[in-house]
Amino acid sequence: MMEIFRLRDRMRPSGLFFGAGLSLLTGLVLGAASLVLSPVWVLAGLLAVCLILLVIKKPELAILGYLVLTSTVIPQNGLPRASFGLGRLMLTDLIIFALFAYIIVQSLVYSDRKIRLSPLGILFLLFYLVGLLSTLYHIYVAHSLTLEESLGELRVFNHYLLFFAVINILRDKNQIRFFIKSLFFLAIIAAVSVVVQYVLGPSNPIVPGRVETLDVEGATIQGVTRILTPGESLLLFVMAVSLVMLLTEKPDRSSLFRWSMTVLIILGVLLTFNRSFWIGTLISMALLFLVVPRQLQRRFLSWVAVGIPIAILALAVMALYPESDYSHLLSASFQRLYSLTQKQTYQSSQSSLRWRDFEYEHGFRRLMKTPVIGTGLGAMYRPFVFRRDRPGFDGRRYMHNGHLYLLVKTGLLGYFFFFSLSVLFIYRGLKNWRRISDPKMGAVVLGLALCYLGAMVVAIVNPLYMQWYSTPVIGVAMGLSESIIAAYLPP
To answer: Residues 453, 427: contact at Cβ < 8 Å?
Structure first.
């Protein structure tokens, strides 16, 4: 087993004889397989073997592949899956199992690759164990939950385990740089897909998620498409990192390109028309101004100074061409943001903010019954509510408030560990970003910490902490920050 695992080292020039032998063996196997299988299956097997060898050589690709499947443009129901005795196994399940098998075997083979937790790891492990044990308790002891009912949310919860995969695989500086560039590439793909979808309109959906005509507190705005896709959380975090990097780095020849990519990602976030994302970003940027040195504060203010005339020009164009698509988009954005200043948004029971009050009432009532360990993952916390639950959407397990969502499912104990690791993550980012030897990596750490702080506000009205496409991003963001600190912080 150990010799097989050392295949990565054999693939170097010094292992040329081994590579030749492996090629010969592969040819013989393919030839024999073609006698009993169709060419399609032989080709699929060859591609699978090539993919496995590539991941063995560059294991961070498996983590990136996980994000591609969960947090870009691929729908959850479009993932390959196979049925087995206890339920259905998804491709993401296989990847997470393979990642941990790789980490364990690697720690046994290489003396310098021992499993590490990082300061966040213990809290992360305690948080995960509380959620898992709570679920198992309600399945096998309280009998208030079934295994089949728990699998959906348990799978979302398992995404957090990417934290441990990241901190144990991303140890080398080259790996970290490659991984960050790849995250930007994935974010650009997600942003381009959103922009293309906006151009096509709601009648021609090409991306998964919600593609709909924008509604602002009951008023439909024709000609403006709202797009909520699995890539929105990745866009949010990469946007924050990109802005911090632009602020902290000296302008050079590549600045125009980087600004172009950042504007594209910002547009992707804008077209979600997600007010909580916008507010979270504003909070992150305000805190950025407060934590950077005075020299960078002046650069930040210069951005604002440039932005003011651009905003005035945009308003002027909107006034001159009120019926243009551009004016509709800009007007809808202002209306969406302005609605946060209106009394009816906070007082009307029909507003998008207040109609979900029934979730909080049922949630707190259910929390009081099992306050310490919660209901377990996958449990229903409320009864069927007419006009809220309907065919195609059963919201009895779902909640908009991410904090209350975790509280109800994992109890006060689980939420305590999660909140503690969140605070520690932000603290370590703010404390260490200036001490990191590479300013670019320091900017990434700062951007992730500030974005997550804003995301904690977002989670008040958004189920980020238990969302299929958000939990992988959170786990990766925390793990990436810890990997950078471990690799770049002077001893």
So the answer is: no
Our measurement of the distance from residue 329's CA atom to the centroid of its chain's CA atoms, rounded to an integer in Å, reads 26
Q: How many CA atoms lie within 13 Å of 181's alpha carbon, on the beta-carbon side? A: 6
Residue 453 has which token pair? 């702080």
CA–CA dist 85, 76 (Å, integer): 21
Are 455 and 464 in contact by the 8 Å Cβ rule? The answer is yes
Q: Are 209 and 230 in contact (CB under 8 A)?
A: yes
Q: What percent of the chain has pLDDT over 70?
A: 88
**161-175 pLDDT, tens per residue?**
999 999 999 999 999
- Closest Cα to residue 231, out of 265, 259, 257? 265
Please report how the helices 162-169 and 118-140 are oriented relative to each other, as an axis angle in degrees rounded to 10: 150
Contact of 109 with 2, CB cutoff 8 Å: yes
Judging by beta carbons within 10 Å of its beta carbon (0-12, 13-18, 19+), is residue 242 exposed, middle or buried? buried
Residues 6+ apart with CB under 8 A from 300: 247, 288, 289, 292
pLDDT tens-digit readout, 185-204: 999 999 999 999 999 998 88
Q: Residue 141 is encoded by which pair of tokens? A: 């002891």
Decide if pLDDT at 343 tops 60.
Answer: yes
Q: If you write DSSP's letter for every residue of 137-152 in order, what string do you get? A: HHHHTS-SS-HHHHHH
Longest dimension (CA), the chain: 75
For the ranges 32-41, 102-111, 370-379, 471-480, which has the lowest average pLDDT? 32-41
Residues in the chain, overall count = 491
> What whole-number distance in Å separates Cα of residue 56 and Cα of residue 144?
42
The string of DSSP codes covering 327-368 is HHHHHHHHHHHHGGG-HHHHH-TTSTTTTTHHHHHHHHHHHH
Residue 382: closest CA among 412, 405, 414: 405
Tell which residue, 477, 474, 427, 482, has the closest CA to residue 156: 474
Q: What is the pLDDT of residue 28?
A: 67
Look at 18 and 302; give whichever has higher pLDDT: 302
Instruction: Look at residue 281 in the predicted model and tell me its pLDDT.
Output: 95
